[in-house]
# Entry
Amino acid sequence: MNRYESAKEIYAGYGVDTDLAIKKMKNITISMHCWQGDDVTGFDSKEALSGGIQTTGNYPGKARTPQELMDDIDMARSLLPGKIKLNLHACYAIFEDGEFADRDRIEPKHFKKWVEFAKARSMGIDFNPTFFSHPMVKDNLTLSSPDEEVRKFWVEHGRRCIEISEYFADETGVPCVMNIWIPDGCKDIPGDRLSPRARFKKSLDEILDIEYDRSKVFVCLESKVFGIGLESYTVGSAEFCMNYVAHKGITPLMDNGHYHPTEVVSDKISSMLLFSDRLALHITRPVRWDSDHVVLFDDETREIAKEIVRNDALDRVFIATDYFDASINRISAWVTGIRSVQKALLFALLQPDDRLKELQDGSRFSELMVLQEQMKTAPFGDVWERFLEDENVASDYFPAISEYEKDVLSGRN
Ligand code: RNT
Ligand code: ZN
# Structure
């Protein structure tokens, strides 16, 4: 008996169908963040990364041009099983023949190259307005700025991004998830917490005021508890965003790096699903002050995946990755993080959920603990290997990455 057959039998003993789990995995789409490839630099400005987020490290081989980024995305994709969608930021606009359009002037045509790229690979595209790394971010403020010129500039950016999102949906035939996150906040104790939030609310209303097809574009709002240099106050707090989203009927986005350290997104998912049709996630790994380390196959990633799977919400949750590590090979960072999310999902699909629920409802908590511990050492790896085999990707992806580093990345500097 081969390893998969044996694993299949062991899982069957727990009432779990491994073939079915693998089949489900093939249809789960992960939205791959393009910004791991170039440390969130983009192509539209020479500004350093700002907005309370930071990349650390200087690993050689960073993508410098749209073509290099596309090549690297292809390289990463070739090592990933399952379905991948492309997640772009507005700062990745591609200007041709010396043309330039500022953030309040961007149009669908500036993303035509990305559409061609995605269509040729049967990928949908998700999108994000870029409210950072730009001279119009004044005193760390964008949509909540008291300066009307600044506020209006960013409102127009948001409106244009909805248009571009609709263009992506029309072109690819796949709905576009458009996520709004602003860095706005204060390093130290603010003298007025209400007015910036009132202005943010007004700005969002103005952005959402444009006509768009809600079956094609899912506008999301992402909260954050603090940023670097924005430690004392963020305008887009959890309460602001949750209330705004509910009030307007748009989609909440939870980034698991954006909460207090002992709070976990896995525990929030069920509550959100009871009140919202859809939920969007940015999966990352927070480490101390940083919210954006490469995702690993760790407890919280597994717990998030379990909540999506056992609440039967795979078609209601938009799963995206969001992290940036500049200290290691960037392709490896992409593949390791995305595979970790996929591993967590497969692990979740292999849990005896009905049995666990029964034990909980029957107050059989000792058995509940024992069974959950047993599942941790069930032969998950053998099922994962079968999934990779079915998807024609190697289990050990590092040799291919090393080769690409030698042949391609090392020529960049
Ligand atoms: C920042 C947010 C946001 C960004 C990306 C680049 O803390 O998580 O989602 O990471 O938009
Ligand atoms: Zn995020």
